[in-house]
Amino acid sequence: MSKILAVLASGRGSNLQALMDAQRAGRLGAEIRLVVSDVPDAPALERARAAGIEAVYLEPVGARRGRTGPEFDRRLLELLHDRGVDLVALAGFMRLLGPEVVEAYRWRILNIHPSLLPAFPGLNAVRRALEHGVRQTGCTVHLVDEGMDTGPIVLQQAVPVLEGDDEASLLARIQAAEHRLYPRAVRLLAEGRIRVEGRRVRILDDGAQPAGRALISVSDKRGAAEFARRLQALGWEIVSTGGTARLLREAGVAVTPVEAVTGFPEILDGRVKTLHPAVHAGILARRDRPEHLEALVRLGLGTFDLVCVNLYPFEETVQAGAGLEEALEQIDIGGPAMLRAAAKNHQGVIPVCSPDDYDEVAAALAAGGLTLEQRRRLAARAFAHTAYYDAVIANHLGAGTGLDPWPERTALPLVRRQGLRYGENPHQDAALYAEAPGPAAGLPGARQLQGKELSYNNLLDAAAAWEAVVEFDRPAAVAVKHGTPCGIAVAGDARTAFQRARDADPVSIFGGIVAFNRPVDAAAAEALADLFLEVVLAPGFDEEALTLLSRRKNLRLLVMDQQPGRGRLDGWRLRSVPGGVLVQGADRARPDPASWRTVAGQVPPELADDLVFAWTAVKHVRSNAIVVARGGVTLGIGGGQTNRVLAARLALEHAGEGARGAVVASDAFLPFPDTVELCAQYGAAVIVQPGGSVRDEEVIEAARRLGVAMVFTGIRHFRH
What we know:
Rossmann fold; Cytidine Deaminase, domain 2; 7-stranded mixed β-sheet; 6-stranded mixed β-sheet; elongated
């Protein structure tokens, strides 16, 4: 059963308000049933009445200066006994109580004083602290005896005296600390946890589990008010900062401002507000170490049992195109410090960094508490949250100064864009991630207009098709199956390019993926409509094309952004190996015919464009790679083979008669004349290859002997 509390106040009643707020939040441990004042129009009385609490003015008949007097004491005791009052709290009551009242409520009357007693007792304590030039003052909660501020000290909190402080500014900070400290002291007294031994107070731990104290300071305010309300309903104290505190108050949540915890105002435009021992000691104190908890009690500090923090919107700010100065202001310092501290001490403190976790945490607390496994999972999320945040900042700042191409240490900020049904096979898990900051580029940034959910294999094939098709300046189409092009063509328009790519291998394209480097119009859509495809990628689809393709409900249509990518992943290619990652630069080498050498025969002028086309296409085929091309279309593709002759045979056999007079491209040098001999058998006119073999002279001699022209590019395009 709650203890009944009476509050005596002579003035504004700000500490009374703090006690009422704590009662409403379920953390006072007592019920305020009566407010008494010796001033008829004291604002404290109005505060009480507004809250539905009985408010009584007692005329100080017979009172002497600074004291209540016998008649006042008699009437006060009658009132207290009649209302069943167990405890009394003085909240700005400006008279000494008489000995009869003190004796009747021995060690059950609390008072709060604006100094660190025994320094500066009595009136004008703040003014005298300033006059004496102290660097630190504070507030003290003490039990009342017959003297002036001489009773045993229960709790204290230090408040620094700042340069330029006057009486009003210092008093405001002290009162903020009082509003936090006084409800805690009342609760201790109400729970019977205060014992007086001589002139000293011992605070007992009687095994009672106080509700807990949560620190909520969030940039993403989704769901924060409801979460705070659920915590408050469970009896938690809510401490908050700035805009979050305003939001919670407007939602009807009783909030303790963080400056009441620290005794220190926000400074430097809010850059410093939670970086304070009163905050971090309460988060980092080990609950299993008595010396930690004793230190908090000795310093008048409380623990934090839950830290709900998410960070300033740095990523969103840079995505909006902000300049460096604005971006720097969105680098959170206090938030990551608090969140990391809570995650480090997660066995005693619950770290919460996402609105997605609010329901789980609130439900678990209502059911009796979180398991260690839940706490550890939240801690891991918190560290991932801060690690991602720091990685975004590091990458953005590095991009502004020219990224070190091969830093000794790096962190890639990746954000999950899509969970996939499974990986290459149904028993493998998979997801798609995008690099941050900035809008997602490439496939993670594609807009899916229709069709089923994309699979892991769809995305791999789509990536291969898109990387190939954007290499071409003319309208182009690339068909891919199992990560390898099966048809590549350029033409005067998208429809013709697709038809030529389709006809290059009409069997393999079935169930494949097609990419265009031009928007798909109605004509191209008509050509696509009768073929079973998994995915079509393009810079856009016109309305008529969408109408035609919408008949194929399962066909996935992706709109691709043709702008260049961003960040390291645009320039790097990553492959995982057991225990690590291989990283290389992207193969951005473009055909440069002016640097090529004709080493055998002469290239027919009508094949000059095909030479460039075939060399561009072979770059996107798995090694060993051979492409046969003529007229801007691949006639045969051989790739992924363990020897180059077999790759050439596959490509040439597929080309058949089309190989006669065609160009053959090889991604790497020809180590022996055998591939040249095979090309000659099929009537190929030109071979384009990097050159660089120790047997180049033998290979060149074979080309000359067999009447096949040969061009060396000096560039290799291995694609493993």
